[in-house]
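Design a sequence for this backbone.
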């Protein structure tokens, strides 16, 4: 195999990095090294997966060990809260008067109204209600805007398709570029090792408008 001269690379405009390949022999060594690294990566990944699986089994065992006792305590707590609520409801006027809360043994007991939730008439679904809202007259446009939720999103895939269907320098491409987005394409270099693995390096480049 021939040795590539540094002077030839400089003439061609290529600049060598400190660890750049300088001959075909070194290329073979780099490819062999890539194969060895691929095998090492696969082994480490397998070890990681096994270790995570072992941790998951231990975590599940810990949860099972405590869950029964915790569930039992929760049931007792629910029972005590239910007993306290029943007593307070039946004696609300005497205990609370016109107040919403009282304090007993440093604990606050409170009747608290929830914010509530929107419920539709039994014979209607969301589509029916939306249709009624959209049919409101123009003077109720503000109400329409408050009740109908619209979440605009950029369709990146549609942008990519449109971009690739237009020619660089064309008015259509210029319109897309003026939006403030572009299409970034990647160029990959792949070494497929003897084990079937792939070692990739990639670079991004913006396509000109």
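Sequence:
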């Amino acid at each position: 195999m021939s040795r590539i001269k540094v002077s030839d690379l400089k003439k061609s405009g290529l600049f060598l990095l400190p660890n750049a390949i300088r001959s075909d022999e070194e290329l073979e060594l780099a490819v062999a090294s890539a194969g060895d690294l691929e095998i090492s990566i696969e082994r480490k990944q397998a070890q990681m997966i096994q270790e995570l699986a072992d941790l998951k089994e231990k975590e599940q065992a810990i949860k099972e060990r405590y869950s029964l006792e915790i569930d039992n305590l929760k049931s007792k707590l629910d029972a005590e809260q239910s007993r306290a609520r029943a007593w307070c409801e039946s004696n609300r006027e005497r205990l609370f008067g016109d107040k919403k809360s009282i304090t007993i043994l440093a604990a606050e007991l409170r009747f608290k109204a929830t914010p509530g939730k929107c419920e539709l008439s039994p014979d209607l679904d969301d589509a029916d209600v939306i249709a009624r809202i959209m049919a409101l007259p123009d003077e109720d446009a503000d109400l329409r805007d408050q009740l109908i939720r619209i979440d605009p999103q950029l369709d990146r895939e549609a942008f990519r398709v449109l971009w690739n269907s237009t020619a660089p320098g064309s008015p259509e491409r210029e319109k897309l570029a003026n939006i403030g987005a572009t299409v970034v394409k990647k160029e990959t270099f792949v070494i497929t090792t003897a084990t079937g693995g792939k070692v990739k390096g990639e670079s991004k480049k913006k396509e000109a408008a």
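The radius of gyration is 35 Å.
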